[in-house]
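Late entry, written up from scratch paper. The run itself happened at the end of the previous shift, but nothing got recorded in the book at the time, so transcribing now.
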Amino acid sequence: MDALLAAAGDPEEEVRGAAARGLARYREEPRATAALAGLCAPPYPRRVVRALVRSGDPAATSALTRAHKEAPSASTRRLAGRFSPDPRRNGAP
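Output as recorded:
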């Protein structure tokens, strides 16, 4: 987990993408969700949006709201719009 979290902040887009794929496997881990929310920025990678939607973590709400309004892809905007926070998750990173 620590290596993935470190890679999420790498300046290289390919490294961040690989980190996002790894972090997406940890849907129940608040640190992973927080890192993915940080990666959820233009151009709003679909794999990141999908992982955040599946997480149900309320901490992802603001990132997914932005993706729903700003993503260049209509399918990514629709995916972000399907987010429903899970009330059992506390949203704290």
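The chain has a mean pLDDT of 92.
(Scratch paper discarded after transcription.)
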